[in-house]
Amino acid sequence: MKTKLISTIIAVLMFLTGCTQNTGDIQLSEEYFPLQIGNKWYYESTLGYSHTIEIIDTARINGQLYFKIERKDDRGRTGSYYARYTNEKIYQKFNESEEILFIDLAAPFNESYTAHQGHIQTLVTRKTIHDKITISGNEFENVIESYHQLPDQNNYTSYYARGIGVVSLIWDRENQEVKLVRARIDGKTVFR
């Protein structure tokens, strides 16, 4: 269950990366997260598991364009959901469920707001945009850092890099990091 939650969090967080800096606000941008069928991200955890996240389709639901996201892990488990963005907000939808807000990219820095990680209500705080940062031995530019507070207090920090997506999730109390090991964007391997 925890592995599935972590994979869901990563998949949805990848939509956060559709951002650029603009007078202190973050705007969605194809530059940060190219929403295209076939784009795929490969992750490994310091706890010994791996999984992939892939954009596999699009669908119009109630007149809105959604991207179908599929996750697969090395244990043979799969899952999917729909996500869309509008203005500076990312929404997700699971099967026939109601659409829920995942994150508001227009929220002020260092102020918390209520969002969801899957079906779990959480508080999210946009912390900063790093000009350059080294994560897991790799240097990235224009990286967005956010802090996520979950009800079970297993809080984590997420990092999203321009042109790539989520590059790392680091949990406060589990001493766990989920890190990107490879990404395929527009048919090209952009990170290895």
List keywords for this structure.
192 residues; mainly beta; YmcC-like fold; 13-stranded antiparallel β-sheet; two-stranded antiparallel sheet; 1 helix
Can you describe this structure?
With 192 residues, the protein is mainly beta. It has a single domain (2-191), classed as YmcC-like fold (Beta Barrel), CATH 2.40.360. Helices cover 6% and strands 59% of the residues. The protein has one helix at 2-13, and strands at 20-22, 25-27, 40-45, 50-61, 64-73, 78-86, 89-93, 100-104, 112-117, 120-135, 138-149, 156-161, 165-171, 177-185, 188-191. The strands form two sheets. Strands 3, 4, 5, 6, 7, 8, 9, 10, 11, 12, 13, 14 and 15 form a 13-stranded antiparallel sheet that branches. Strands 1-2 form a two-stranded antiparallel sheet. It is globular, with a radius of gyration of 15 Å. The model is unreliable at 12-29 (pLDDT under 50).
Question: How does the SSE layout of this entry go?
Answer:
Elements: H1 2-13, E1 20-22, E2 25-27, E3 40-45, E4 50-61, E5 64-73, E6 78-86, E7 89-93, E8 100-104, E9 112-117, E10 120-135, E11 138-149, E12 156-161, E13 165-171, E14 177-185, E15 188-191
Antiparallel strand pairs: 1-2, 3-4, 3-14, 4-5, 5-6, 6-7, 7-8, 9-10, 10-11, 11-12, 12-13, 13-14, 14-15
Question: Could you name the ranges where pLDDT drops below 50 across 5 or more consecutive residues?
Answer: 12-29
- Structure annotation, total helices: 1
Q: Per CATH, which architecture?
A: Beta Barrel
Could you say which overall geometry the principal axes of the C-alpha atoms support? Answer: globular
Which band does the percent of strand residues land in?
over 45%
Oligomeric state of the chains? single chain
Distance between the termini: 28 Å
